[in-house]
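Researcher: Here's my situation. A collaborator sent me these components and asked whether they could plausibly form a single complex. I don't have experimental data yet, so a predicted model of the whole assembly would be a useful starting point for our discussion.
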Amino acid sequence: MRSAIRSIPAEAGQDRAARALALAVRGLPGERADWGAAMSAELAGVRGARARWSFSLGCARTAAGMRVRAAVLARDRGATGLRASVMAAIAASVALALYGPLRYPGLRTGASGLAFAAFLAIMLAYGVAALSLSRGNAPAATIARRCGVAGGLAVGGGWLLIFLPVSKAFFFVPLAVALVAPIVAAALAGHIGRDAGVGRAAALWSGLVGGLLVFVAYVTVTYTGDGRPYDAQTVRDFHASGARDLVTYAVSDDLGGALTMLVIIPVVALALGSLTSAPASATRHAQRRR
Amino acid sequence: MKRSRRPSSQTLRVLGALMADPLEWRYGYELGVEVGLKSGSLYPILVRLADRELLEATWETGAPAGRPPRHLYRLTSSGREYASEHASETASAPLRRGLPQLRGAG
């Protein structure tokens, strides 16, 4: 976050609170853009570092609320099938998360409540991101979706090959696929769409699709096999954990891993995709100028 | 058809402050300090009031050099009617005053 704030071009006299607010209100939906400008201008009249940060962060929260609301209530949506698929995957993920404690009563602990709350927050973020990305039927949005979904299938497939109990002989191949796919998707989308934003949208689609694919498949396989295989390390960790039984421990461990991947996959995809979408877009612009 | 639901106590405080001098244009931060609301609570209220056409906003003219023009707010005629309808609740809404830390609010 700090680096993101530092990366904002500083205008004369702008401090970090102003930069943070500029970052938060950048690209607000058209009908809300004036409010972003109004909050930024108002900050210029606020004195004192503490008051400025308080004002800036409050406005950033307001801007985030505006984005969520715009994403949820937008009417100009495309990609009905993709949106429906993502929502179905989110519903399946929630159903799987609810089924776990029913099938394995040992999972019902105080910590599992917190984990479930975190999981719901992540699902909400996935839903809002998917709704936000599915706005518009412009060619750029379509390019981002197509490249993103293709990248997401590759990302998900790669991570699943790493996690599922199959041969680990070619471990580096699926890892490379999982890491390179969002880069390719973002670069391709940025190049075709001639806009780094299109590339970033494709990268985020890759992360969303890949994350949901991994979670649903991995948790399903975990339940089907009761968390098998129980290798020597799992058994040692189980004895050290004080958990009730090996099955509950193994399933709990896998669920924790799946939850972590729900966060890591889109974050990594977006980070890697953002690195490449801008140069790809710039290259296309340069080619067109020649 | 607009829904007419009871405004929150925070909204009532904002309405009360705006009704104190209904024709005067007010700055957002100044308003927030007066009613004791931080920006994260104040702006969503202002946005909602503006969406319901109860609040009008305009850009400041003649801002001093080096400072961007700020937004100014006041109630519309419907907003004044709405505030009057809830005047009794407005009067009883708790008011917290913050520490004014304004510069160049004129």
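Model: Some features of this prediction you could bring to your collaborator: Chain A has two domains: 2-69, 78-289. The mean pLDDT of chain A is 85.
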